[in-house]
Amino acid sequence: MLDIETFDNLRGGNVVYKALSHPHAARRLAALSASAGPVAVFDPDGIAGPLLALCPALDVRGLYVQDVQAVGQMRGGHAALALTELSQATVQTVLLAAFDAGRLAERLAPLLPRGAALLTLDGVKLPPDWQTVPGRYLDARNFATNFVFFRDDGHFATRLTTANYWAGYGAQGVRFQYILHALEGAVLAEWEDAAPSGPGGYVLDSQEVRQRFGLGPFTGQLFIHAIGVAGHDVVKYALDTYATDGGPSLSCTHDANAWPSARFAGLPAPRPDEHVVLWVQNSHGVTIPAGALALDRMGAGQPVRLQRDIPPYATLALDVAELLPGLHWPAQIEFHAGRHVVRPRYEVRRGNRTRIAHVNVERADLVPDPGIKTLPEALGRGFLLPFPVLPRQRFKTLVLPTPMAESEDNTPLRLDVFGPDGRRVVEHFMGDLPRLHNGVVDIDALLPDDALADGGHAELVYDFRFGGEANGWMHGLFRFEDKLSGHAAESSFGAHIFNTIMVYKNEPQSYTGKPPGLSTRLFLKLGFGGRATFCTLIYPASAPWVEHSSTYLELYDAHGARLETAKISIPCSGSVMVRPTEMFAATNVMEAGERGYVLIRDTTCRLFGFHGVDDGAGGFSFDHMFGF
């Protein structure tokens, strides 16, 4: 397990981690360790753990602290010594483990051992033109970064789509810096692109990148760093994977979630006629040692270790059957990742069709919350996990609840199914599901043949009729299958309290400011290559809220010009399927182009959405949308 702190649900991201793990910092840390010789580390801010985890080649001969209460504590594998002992160290270099360390370095100078050089972490800073806030290095806006699963191998291409949403918060001159790593981790290309000057759409296609740099086939990961941002320090995007060899494969996924985790969950075991490949991508500049990663059947408690090294920034295609042979759907798999990787993708190969989806972070900090059992009437049904039921004439919709906290031993669940008009048509108690369960539900089995012919949605809800516990981090895997073509897509997400004016802890969640989050700002990319985009918008409500939404769909082009606005109204607890080609004038959709997008806005309620594209020949993609 890497000794790093990445993300805390209350405080947000750990900027020190971002600063130390950035690929540029990794290069400079490697150069520092190669030239520093024997080192004494002064650790004024308690960051020695992640520093030495991400720079293990440092020849550390002693670690020193100022706080007398910290003397003797273990930091980065070393027992802390009093700073007063530093002058007696026999070292070539003293490393002051701090950024913006000028004044502190001056005070430390009289304590240096004779002949020792003094270095600080200012030597591993990003270049000034990579910094959004140059005067305050550990400002989160300096590290608006993410990873992208990126490939163009002659069979599949990938396509990143986002928008300059920072412009809406006053940002000007936003730029993207890219570092593309090959399968074995080597750098294939580095470049910079300008974002649109206003809130325009932005696309990066692997075919264009390959042509631009004269690259051969590749599979790897793309590091993206947004500079000049405001409002958000997270790079959000949608990623399409599409066939370039005439095959029928098509899928899309959400952004990678830039924070490594100890464990991930929501990885499905293969059906007997499938192969499930987990794309393991090393997110750091240090090797993942053999035995550091493992797969386990969820709830079995018998992890099987991967006995293979993975070099820095390298990508490994791991067929889950290699470690867990004979395990089949609807069993699910837990990935013990040791904080080495950000949220990975997985690929399901079945016949001539391949689909890509992502696993989710499994929380280590959550314990059962007894308050959820006694939520007041004002919070109604409390935590909801909404997901679409696609039109049943064409699609089969399956749901598999997935434990997403290490302490989650049981999950008491009910499934409520709603029509587009907001009326509940089915209530199905699923039971108090143990951590190791096979509780997949086929929505078709719950409904009469003529119900929800044009689709609707369903919600997972906690139900304590027979006891059980809850932590608020309810998750599920949703699988959608075309009944004729056999094409499938899957997505996963977690629960929130939706659309109540009363608040429980940090729910209803808000993208900006304090809860409750009673407004909507969702991004819908447009279709490409003749494929038509669509989305399902859901108006979930934990308790009765406004009778109908007041939802505006704003069509933008790649320059950020708003071309047209359409309005729709969704009943409370209802849903609607939106196709931009039916909502907007054909001339405006054409003018928006493949780099345009639709911004879905509502100031009266929070909507939840899933988006995808349809190729008109039985292929489609589908995943949850992102907001900003």
Characterization of this structure:
- The protein is mainly β and 628 residues long.
- Helices cover 9% and strands 38% of the residues.
- The protein has 7 helices and 44 strands.
- The strands form 11 sheets. It has a 5-stranded parallel beta sheet with strand order 7-4-3-8-9, with no helix packed on it. Strands 21-20-23-18-26 form a 5-stranded antiparallel beta sheet, with no helix packed on it. A 5-stranded antiparallel beta sheet has the order 30-29-32-27-35, with no helix packed on it.
- The chain is globular and about 85 Å long.
Outline of the structure:
This protein has 628 residues and is mainly beta. It is built from seven helices and 44 strands. The chain has a five-stranded parallel sheet with strand order 7-4-3-8-9, with no helix packed on it.
Task: Name the shape in a single word.
Answer: globular
What is the CA-CA span between the terminal residues?
32 Å
Number of helices: 7
Structural class assignment? mainly beta
Number of strands: 44
Helix content: under 10%
Strand order of the largest sheet: 7-4-3-8-9
- Low-pLDDT residue intervals, each spanning 5 or more residues: none
Question: Largest sheet, described in full?
Answer: 5 strands, parallel
